[in-house]
Amino acid sequence: MGEVKLNQLSKRFGGVAALSDVSLSFRSGEIHAVVGENGAGKSTVMKILGGILQADAGTIEIDGRLVEIPNVLRARELGISIVCQELNLMPDLTVAENIFLGCLPTKCGVVNRREMERRGAELLKSMGVDISVTSLAGELSVACQQMVSIANALAIGGDIVILDEPTAALNTREVETLYGIVRDLKRQGKTVIYVSHRMKEIFDLSDRISVLRDGRYVATVETSASSEDEVVSLMVGRAVTTHRASVSGRGDEVVMSVSGLSCVGFYEDISFELHRGEVLGFAGLMGCGKDELVKSLFGLYRPDSGVVSLDGQVILDVGGGVDKLSCPRSAIELGIGYVTEDRKGSGIFAAMGVLDNVLGGSCRLNKFGLLDDEKEAALLAEYTESLDIKYTSRDQAISSLSGGNQQKCMLARALATQCERVLILMEPTRGIDVGAKSEIYGLLEELSKKGMSILVVSSELSELLSTCHRLCVVFQGRMTGLLDQADFDEELVMSCATGQREFYSGASKG
Ligand SMILES: Nc1ncnc2c1ncn2[C@@H]1O[C@H](COP(=O)(O)OP(=O)(O)OP(=O)(O)O)[C@@H](O)[C@H]1O
Ligand SMILES: [Mg+2]
C-alpha cells in the first residue's frame, strides 16, 4: 500500500509553466526526498497529489490504480496527508481541534472533546513537543505551528505522508524529533515524500532523491550512492561555493548596546554590544527566548527592565522612562529594519503584487508628491537583480510566487525601507534553495562591509556558523555563550544551547 506513480504531470499558471511532463514514482516504505531550486515545482507536485491543485495534464496512479484527486477530502480517502509549506492551521481553533481537523473523534455524531484533547496531548507527547492542546493555533510560534501541522498529518493516518519543508522553522533538537517521526512512518511501511532545502537532512533521512529543475524532472538517485555535490549540481546545473563570513567586515564602533535587558517569562539579564558592520547571530532551542529578545529590539515585545542604546543615545531605559522602542514604527524611524519569520502570517500582503509588497512601505514619490513610476521600476529592478527574484510581472500576486522568491521579496522590502543602522533578520533563508542561500549570504556580507549591523536569528546552526561574525547563545532565557568566530564549533554551541556549559570568547566577556 502507498505506491504512487505520477505520469507526465503538467501544470500552468497563466504564462508560467510550473510543471512540464513530470513523472515520479514513490515506493511504500521509503523516504523519498524531492529537491530543486526555488520555483522548481516541488510544492506544485505535492499540492496536486494532495488534492489542493489540479494538473492540466497527466495521470496519478496509487497502488496500480488510476485515480482522480479533485480535492483534499478525496486525497485523504486515498490515504494521502500533506503538511504544506505555507502552514495553514485554523488560527481560531485550538491545537487539539487543528490536530484532528478532518478526522474529529465523535461519539454518537457529536465531537468528543475530551477524547480529542486526550489523544491530541498523547500524540504531541509522543512527538516530544510541549504544546498545550487547548491553546489557540493562532497564538503559536511558527515552529509550534509546524509541529501541530505534522501532528495533523499523523492523526489522519494515511499511507502516504507528504512533508513540504517540514523543518524550515525547526532547530537541531526539533529536527531530531522529526527524524524519529519520519523513520517511524517508514518502519510502518508508509510512503514519506519529503521536500527540503536542507541537504544534511536529505542525506540523513532519505532512501532516494528526485530532482526537479525549472518544472522538469531531472533525475532520481539512490541516496547512499550519491553525494551532496552531485545533488546540488543536478539541482542548479552548476557548482555552488560554500560561504564563510569574513571577519574584516566588523568594525570596533559600537552601534547598539543592550544591557541587563529582561522580559519576564521570556528572557533575563541579557547584555551584548553590536558593532558597526557586524553580523551577530542568535542561537538556541525553540522557546529559549531568543526570538522574543531580538523582537524586543524592533518594538515587538516590551522589556521589563534594562537599557538599549543606539549610536550612544539611550533609546530604551525602562527604569529611566526613556522609550523610543515602543512599537515597530518607532524602531523603523530609528533606522532599524526587520524581516519576519512568519512570512505568511505577518510578512506578505498575499493579494497584492510584487511591487507593492517590496516598495509599499517606502517613499517613492516624485517632486510633485506623486508616485514616481520610473523610480519605482528602477528600484524594483535593482532588487530583482541583486536578489535574483523570479516573477512574471510586477503586479503578480506575491502569494503565487514560490516560497523562496516570496522570502527574497521580504528581504528586499526591509532593504527598501532604508534601515540605515540595524537590520534584524528572523530566519532569513527559510525555504530558500542552496543557490539562492549563498546569494543571500553574499548579500549579507556586502551589507556588513558597507557598515550595516545585522542581527540574525536562525534555527539552522550551520547557517549561523557560516554567516556570522559572532554568536550569542540563549538557554532558558539566559545568555549561556557569546562566541567569536575563532571559537565557532557546532558542538560547543549545542552544549551552550542545552545548558550543559557556558562559554565566552576572550574578547566578548562582560
Ligand atoms: N498560484 C500560482 N499562481 C501563479 N504561479 C504560481 C502559483 N503557484 C506556483 N506558481 C509558480 O509555479 C512555479 C513553481 O512553484 P512551486 O511553488 O511549485 O516551487 P517550489 O519548487 O515549491 O519552490 P520553493 O522551493 O521556493 O518552495 C513558480 O514559478 C511559481 O511562481
Ligand atoms: Mg515550495
Helix and strand content put the structural class at alpha/beta
Compounds present?
adenosine-5'-triphosphate, magnesium ion
Question: Mind summarizing the main beta sheet?
Answer: 7 strands, mixed
Helix percent band: 25-40%
Per DSSP E runs of 2 or more residues, the count of β-strands stands at 24
- The CATH topology of the largest domain, please? Rossmann fold
**CATH C-level category of the largest domain:** Alpha Beta
**Within the largest sheet, what's the order of strands?**
19-20-21-15-22-23-24
Task: Give the second-level CATH assignment, the architecture of the largest domain.
Answer: 3-Layer(aba) Sandwich
Mean pLDDT: 88
User: Which shape, going by the Cα principal axes?
Assistant: globular
Which blocks of ≥5 consecutive residues have pLDDT under 50? none
**Rg (C-alpha, Å):** 23 Å
Strand content: 25-35%
Assigned CATH superfamily of the largest domain: P-loop containing nucleotide triphosphate hydrolases
What is the tally of helical segments? 17
In whole angstroms, the N-to-C terminal distance is 60 Å
In short:
The protein is of the alpha/beta class and 510 residues long. 32% of the residues lie in helices and 26% in strands.
